[in-house]
Amino acid sequence: MPQFLAAFEVGQSKVEEERRQQICRFGRWMYRRGLVVACQGNLSVRLDEDRILLTPAGACKGRLAPEDLLITDLSGAVLSGAGEPSSETQMHLLFYRERPEVHAVCHAHPPTATGFAAAGRALDQPVLPEIVADLGTIPLAPYGTPGTWEVCAGLEPLVAEHDAILLESHGVVTCGKDLATAYYRMETVEQFAKILLTARTLGGPRLLSSREVEKLMAAKAGRWTARPQGSVELPLEADARAYAAPGARRERTPFSRHRAQRRNAR
């Protein structure tokens, strides 16, 4: 038994060291790609059911060292590390408490996506198939004073169904099964914001129809083939092009039905 416990502790230590290295690496990527400047943003990973490894307050993400990181419990109490937890720690912990499958959270201030957030505009139009398939809609959480409970209050209704969320007049938060997934989703949100902004300068994006969205959802679920047999007609509830009409009533779309089905299956 003592040998087993010793081996288990060595394994845990190795995993923790790998996660520390990952956070430092992705922190450098965020900084070099302009997703954060100065000491903005934060990263975290779930070590186990009770412990979270995350970046400390006031640290430049481009200059992190493994020993700079903190370990907290799910209430935010520091278990190890010399620094202070970020004022946005509770935003990370909200994801971990609400979604057991989430093992990493990334918060940054990518300039174009944050521009949409500052303008009060969600990235919720079905424009690019890869965005619909991976992220669906990217909603806008209402403004909350950074570092206060208001941020979590605005996020809480959205966390269960969304992997990327804009924070009004603040930035973006993404999550994933691992840190790479959470980080790449952050890059994807910023790229989508750039494309959408460009499309708007050219007269506005052409939106995918509800039928096209339904096909993407079916393909993601493994129910669609390149050459389907029989009828390819799919039920239409609300054509996504209705989003283009100012003030148009937003009815439930195929994507929202898919999200609801996934939520009910939990």
The CATH homology group name of the largest domain: Class II aldolase/adducin N-terminal domain
Largest sheet: 8 strands, mixed
Q: Do you know the CATH topology of the largest domain?
A: L-fuculose-1-phosphate Aldolase
Report the principal-axis shape: globular
Number of helices: 8
Word description of this protein:
Helix 2 (89-98) runs parallel beside helix 5 (149-159) and helix 3 (111-118) packs across helix 6 (179-201). The two termini are 37 Å apart. The protein has an 8-stranded mixed sheet, sandwiched between helices. It contains 8 helices and 8 strands. The model is unreliable at 4-8 and 227-251 (pLDDT under 50). The protein is globular, with a radius of gyration of 20 Å. With 266 residues, it is an alpha+beta fold. It has helices at 2-32, 89-98, 111-118, 129-134, 149-159, 179-201, 210-220, 254-265; strands at residues 42-46, 52-54, 70-72, 78-80, 104-108, 140-141, 164-167, 171-176. It folds into 2 domains: 2-201, Class II aldolase/adducin N-terminal domain (L-fuculose-1-phosphate Aldolase, 3-Layer(aba) Sandwich); 210-265, no CATH class.
Quick structural summary:
This protein is α+β, with helices and mostly antiparallel strands.
